Amino acid sequence: MIEDFECRFCGNSVKGKGYTNHCPKCLWSTHVDVNPGDRASACKGLMKPHSVVYTRTNYTIVHKCLKCGEEKRVEAAPEDNRDALASRIKSGPIVI
Ligand SMILES: [Zn+2]
Ligand SMILES: [Zn+2]
Predict the structure, then answer these.
(1) What element of type H or E holds 84?
(2) Residues within 5 Å of ion ligand 1 by Cβ?
(3) Average pLDDT over residues 26-52
(4) If you average pLDDT over every residue of the chain, what do you get?
(5) How many domains in the chain?
(6) Does the structure show a pLDDT above 50 at 96?
């Protein structure tokens, strides 16, 4: 499902790609998926990017839903703000 959306945290206009559901600028997301891209969740809560894990190949963002508390991991997209990612790293080497 490809859809454009406005970030509910910073107001940034996000060009949807059908998979990424977080804002590349502030990394906040919305709880809309049960599995990535399916938009099957009824929660619709705001998801905070509370930490980032750097794995050898990419950043993984750990989102926590402010409404239901569920945690989800998602791979960072190439257009995601590198400073925003780096500033949230909890563990692992920082390699950019
Ligand atoms: Zn945003
Ligand atoms: Zn939720």
Answers:
(1) helix 82-86
(2) 7, 9-10, 12, 23, 25-26
(3) 92
(4) 87
(5) 1
(6) no
The residue range of the domain holding 41 is 5-91
Ligand nearest to the CA of 12: 1
Is residue 96 domain-resident?
A: no
79 in Cβ contact with 85 (< 8 Å): no
Residue 44 confidence (pLDDT) above 80: yes
Confidence grade of residue 19 (pLDDT, cut at 50, 70, 90): low
Region for residue 40 given its phi and psi (left: phi exceeds 0; alpha: psi -120 to 50; beta: otherwise) = alpha
Would residue 35 count as lying in a domain? yes
**Ligand nearest the Cα atom of residue 69:** 2
Cα dihedral 72/75/77/78 (nearest 10) = 160
Please tell me the distance between residue 56's alpha carbon and the centre of ligand 1 in angstroms: 26
CA 62–ligand 2 middle distance (angstroms): 13
pTM of the model: 0.85
Question: Does 55 map to a domain?
Answer: yes
